[in-house]
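Supplementary Data S3. Sequence and structure tokens for construct A.
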Amino acid sequence: MQKIIINILSAAFLFTATLTAQTNISGQTVKNARFTYPLIERWIAEYTKENPEFQASKELQALTGKESSLTIITSQPADSDLTISQQITYVGRYALVPVTNRKNPILERIPKSGLSKKQLKKIFFEEADELAEDNNEAKSKFAATVYSRDNNTPSSIALAKYFGAKPEELKGKKVLGDDIYLLSAIRKDTTGITFNNLSYVFDTQSRKLSNGIALIPLNVKTQQREVLSLPDLDNTLSLLEHSSVDNIPVEKIGFVLSQEQRENKTVTAFIKWILTKGQAFNHAAGFLQLDEATLAFQKEHIDEKLLSTIQ
């Protein structure tokens, strides 16, 4: 889990994403999920537009000069990872897709049916040369170079979970810093491959693939393959929201709230807005909306918290 510090001032509602102390999950120190920041910033900006009085509320004035920390989580923890007073409110989802340099020779060698989950697992967790030919010359020319983050980052944990592996089994050259640097690495290496989230793989302005990046063809249903073969962020988000697509991990993101935060009307009102009007901004930032069942469940529970704070 990653600490997101929201500095609340009486004159303005300011969002400051700082790299604070790392949090321990299941014995692992989980580093930041910086890729979520643009979405959270957008929610805050839009909420402030609709609620100008929110900036001058008594609750916010009482917090002037203090840091009200909200913890954001990007993979589902075990019950033992949370304290008795903590609860998670999920607010969106993200997807991880396999990508490569658009000039990578392996794109010509992948079968029309695309790579299977078994093949991807071999590439990223077992055998980095799964796509290589039998002879050494071909291996040297066509072997894929895997790039990955540290084992304790959210993307590595989510990827390992999807493939039924352990984060420490993730292969590849380790790239420090934000997930976006994985794309920088494969742009410089025509044999490079990696997994990354849609908000980085696609340009959120043009809605097309980021410069120099290509999606790795996947073994999926015919209609799904047609959508993925003509990469478009909105079509991809719609596809993932309306169907389960093999080989593309989808994870929820959410706020971990303490009892004090759940009893704070300012916090709960903001999160309720995210669950209603705020979902409309998920796509713009490259994130999926919650599925209907999860959204209904989260709304019901946040409404209960609002009622309890009013009574």
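Construct B, processed identically:
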Amino acid sequence: MTSFNTLFNRMFQEKSRTVYLIYLIQAFASLCFSVWMIISMKGDPNVMVINGHHEVTNHLISYLLIFGVMMFITSFFANFVYWIISSIKNEKINRSQTWRLIPISDTKFLLSNFGTAFISYLWLMILEGITVAVTCLPVLTVNEVRKNLADFFSRSQQLGTQDWWGLLGALVLVILLGYAWYAIVSLINLSSRSIMEFLPNGSSKFIMFIVRVVIILAIIWLLSKATTVVFGAIGNFIPFLADGNNDLQMSGTLVAFLLFDVVVTLIDILLLNKFVEAKQN
């Protein structure tokens, strides 16, 4: 049997190629936007206005800052593109005969597939964050920027324990939502494909397309109803979540999403193991 770590590392290497490609395209696009912006400013972007104060910097700092801002702005589009591409890649791996022949359980296979997609997304965000931080670092030579940063850090020290727990809960919620995205996409794809297997082989492509669209819409409707039921059940079993305590409400939300992810994953495993056949690459 192949170990989970071995499969995880191999899948991460495969998906990190997409990350590097998206990052390079994003950096090139940001560079083009930066050049266009500098030209539109007539090559004199060295005057910064911060809190009403005019700060004069050298051109290199201004150029790097513009590139960092462009990287930050384009990151939203790049991240969206990654979610779409990674979802498609996940489904190709799920149906790939080469990957499915790896001696490992379906549970570990799916967890590795979903997990590497999300970790690769975090790696893309890290690359973007490092690029923005490095290109914007020289702007710390501006006095007004240093004052604003000092004020920000002094305020952050005033955050209480409840605030930090809220931030941690938000981080966990983002992770659960990211996992839920991949699990739901797989559920829609695997369930629609498993149902399509029962249709006659001679059916036209148009009919197959219509049937698949109807199946996908039906699954999305069922998922929305299931989500309502899960959250309602959590509220009934833990009635004190509605007492206004934000920590308890956050805990209830996390538990609900965790249960939702587990249920959807179990259905994915069942479909992958029993109803969906792998195809040759």
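The longest strand covers residues 47-50. Helices lie at 4-40, 59-95, 97-100, 106-136, 143-156, 161-196, 205-237, 246-274.
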